[in-house]
Design brief:
By secondary structure, the chain is α+β, with helices and mostly antiparallel strands. About 40% of the residues lie in helices and about 15% in strands. The strands form 2 sheets. The protein has a 6-stranded antiparallel sheet with strand order 1-2-6-5-4-3. Strands 7-8 form a two-stranded antiparallel sheet. The longest helix is centred in the middle third of the chain and has 15 residues. The model has no long low-confidence stretch (mean pLDDT about 95). This is 3-methyladenine DNA glycosylase/8-oxoguanine DNA glycosylase.
């Protein structure tokens, strides 16, 4: 977007780096950072009772714990602890979507109310490809609670202790070398089948090449991700949404998304082909539109059968 979009002040005291970030447009930190959380007990993401959002990440200069506290409709105070704090401070505007251009985005009338309620929604940009890719692989072809449980177990065992006064149990995601060295039996104990475990190991083995995708055009970046055996269109889209802030990356193959999009936009369920047809007029903002759909979908498309019981890989 043209013009000044944000300003910030940085100060350091007592081992904590503080950033006062002021945007020129509304900023909803909870909605913006929300996709980075994987379940209510994610060791790398925590919503506190005081309204603050805690997050950990592993930057190229070291681990960092981030605490985001909203102080106004366009202002957020961020506390940073750890060796990665200075780099994290520099990258905060990118993370919070300050570079996102939404000037051509016009949702349909049915979603105008959702857009009004989500005025401060930005598309998060972590720039961390493997960090986004691993949980996406864990969520392939399994029920979401099962994937979230596996993520918790793996981070509890292999993640780094979160720097600073992070809430109890918070961890920092492992580096690529650690992911590559997880033994087969620990994947099994976490409930991860050999196919997904091998995909993560392959991704970790070429992590430097995958991280380069952050600086590529979006189509080329996703193509590079999908060259790894086991990474398909759904997984690359989920990764692109979080790591690149790709406003057009649609999660084709999602178990619920197509039916929800069809129901909200037309009052009828649809499949992936129908969903893409409905979303086509909103290119290059199709993912941004689905974010509004998911915020506005309740009660959602009616179910066609009873809820499936959770099924663990280890039970087979």
């Amino acid at each position: 977007m043209p013009g000044v979009r944000w300003s910030g002040t940085v100060c350091s005291t007592g081992g904590v780096l503080m950033v006062h970030h002021v945007s020129a447009r509304p900023l909803d930190v909870g909605l913006t950072l929300g996709p980075l959380g994987h379940g209510p007990f994610d060791p790398a993401f925590h919503r506190a009772g005081d309204g603050s959002v805690w997050r950990t990440t592993l930057t190229s200069t070291g681990p960092v714990t981030q605490r985001f506290m909203t102080v106004g409709p366009r202002e957020v105070l961020v506390h940073l602890w750890g060796d990665g704090a200075p780099q994290s401070a520099d990258e905060l505007p990118i993370l919070l979507g300050e570079d996102e251009d939404t000037t051509g985005f016009a949702p349909p009338a049915k979603l105008r109310d959702a857009q009004r309620r989500a005025t401060g929604l930005r598309l998060v940009v972590t720039g961390m490809v493997l960090e986004a890719l691993v949980p996406a692989v864990l969520e392939q072809r399994v029920q979401t609670p099962i994937a979230h449980r596996a993520w918790r177990r793996l981070l509890a065992r292999y993640g780094l202790r979160a720097p600073g006064p992070a809430p109890a149990g918070m961890r920092v995601v492992p580096d690529a070398r650690t992911w590559a060295r997880i033994p087969e039996w620990d994947w099994h104990r976490a409930g991860i089948d050999p196919a997904r475990a091998r995909t993560i190991t392959r991704c970790a083995a070429v992590a430097p090449r995958l991280e380069e995708a952050s600086a590529m055009p979006r189509a080329e970046a996703r193509s590079r991700l999908e060259r790894v055996v086991g990474v398909g269109a759904w997984t690359s889209a989920e990764t692109a949404q979080r790591a690149f802030g790709d406003a057009d990356a649609v999660s084709v193959g999602d178990f619920h998304l197509a039916a929800t999009v069809g129901w909200v936009l037309t009052g009828r369920r649809t499949d992936d082909v129908g969903m893409l047809r409905l979303l086509d007029p909103y290119t290059p903002y199709r993912h941004r539109l689905t974010r509004l759909v998911l915020l506005d979908h309740h009660p959602g498309a009616p179910r066609r059968g009873p809820r499936r019981p959770l099924s663990e890989y280890r039970a087979f």
